Structures
1.
Amino acid sequence: RAQPRGRPRKAYRRPPGGVAALRAFAATLAAVTVAELGDKTQLLAVAIAARARAPIAFAASTLGFVAANLLMIPLGALLHGTLTGQALRALAGALFLGVGLLSLLGRRGDPLGACSFVKGFCAMFLAELGDKTNLTTLALAASTGAPAEVALGVAAAAAVLMATATALGSSLAARLPADRLRKVVGALFAAVGAAALATAFAG
């Protein structure tokens, strides 16, 4: 018997649950943590923590990191055809390198100054744009079909990474005199900028 014709049914993909969701979360947590451990992201978080109170530094670094990664897709669509990931990395790298060199060489005050939440958030957000963690987040979300679990994994990894960096930065701020601290923070900013520029031109 001929079957009545109608609109083809769309394939329904069930959201992952239980073990699959846990695997997506664990994979994201492990991948992001390993990718950023000891990377320029942590160096920047150390520099932020050396210039701000620990709670502010931790919150600014963590939220800036998470926002840059979770908002990468709509931001990429907005900037498509205008700025490439390579251009964003080069722009952020030049900014950080310039600030770091001014802090190292300047004799009139400290261009870095005290770091507020907004400064720390913006610095971390800029540093993460176009970074490899963006691609990792996108790949994991696409391959697992579990964007919520991937988002939680990114947030958990950020908390682990930034807690470690904040503790180190706060320790430096407590032990180093102001002038030496300024030079250390300037060197960290310059290192972050140089790394971003190297990645941009290498890619």
Note: Residues 147-175 form the longest helix (29 residues).
2.
Amino acid sequence: VIDKQQDHWWVLACAWTTDTGPRSRMLYFGRVETRDMLRQVQARYLVADACVAQDRRFRPADVDRDCAEFGWRALRGFGRKSWTMRDEAANMMVNFPHSDPRVAQFQGVEVFYYEFSGDYFKDILATALEGKGDVRFELPEDCNPLFLEHLKGEAKVEIRSGVWEWREVKVNAPNHGLDCAAMMLCVATIAGIVRFVPPKGDK
């Protein structure tokens, strides 16, 4: 997954397995300076084009260009919690933490992107990093220390009585690793690697 910035990108690559439940292992996290370098990282870790997702919040036209040229997907985080869609397996309407595929156009080429709840996937990440829940998010011994720093860039705070949201701990605190990891969990959920189970009564 790719978090686009003004003149660079932050990239997270992970390997997934479902042999013992959904489990992710970080392969790479770092700052990338050029589009060519993005493709080099993708090739190094053998990531299929359809498995690459770039954040569409900043300069969406540039992101759409990349997706049209390379066959990538795009993501856009929102404060909302859910999107109601039909669960084909259960044959009922369910509130998912992401949308169905949206379609944009770039020079006549269709580009697919998804909207998602950033807070939902940050909750899943926090639980996984604590070794709780069904999902495992494993970090290598030589994990980039910037990733660990970025995880501390936001905290879940009570903004009003009974309402909690993820917020920056200070203005412009680096949180790109956190955002990338949330996007990674979103992609895994859309792909069916991580199975979304709606809370009881939330259907």
Note: The two ends are 30 Å apart (CA to CA).
3.
Amino acid sequence: AMLCVMALERLGVAKERGLPRLSAPAFTRVVLNAAPGAAARALELRGPTTTLTTGAGSGLVALALAAEQLATRADADTLVVAAADELDEDSSPDAFEGGAAVALSRVRPARRAAVRLLGWALAGPGRAAEAAERALAMARVAAAPEARALGDAANAPATGELLRFAAALAPLRYGEPAPLIVTHGGGASAAAIVVGLGGAEDA
């Protein structure tokens, strides 16, 4: 019902302004899959697309969903997960605007050791501990240190946790043996990702 009301409001604005003055960001707020569809065409990507918005932490939620889709579907071997935050007139002065993207692939790495998703899970709002427990169980590890927080990115509802995940990959790529976990319990869904090193035979 809320989306319908927003769509009607945006339609009224479009009629008042006319198509030449229509706001592209306003359009993507009504047609949520417009932005990823345009990005897929620009990058010549083919396959399934999904758009979601869960508020805070939605980038990490999208990453966990993509990992599950990649593990269970046969119509894609690589998925691109992207998140974006946009400022508007109601944004706070310390709000963050930007985007982040991560590519996941089921293709076996050529190197013997590569960074891999070892476990992932989604849970209800505020239930980060449950998501973490399930992700750790999937990864078959008893515990893992939480990836460090990123300063200004903490003010980015969608991209902040995806950027924190990307930053967690660096120590693993340079020899840190222990897996790390990235969790977030805000928004409409909690999510947890366990990332570590895996060999080419572990695909």
Note: Residues 1-10, 199-203 have pLDDT under 50 and may be disordered.
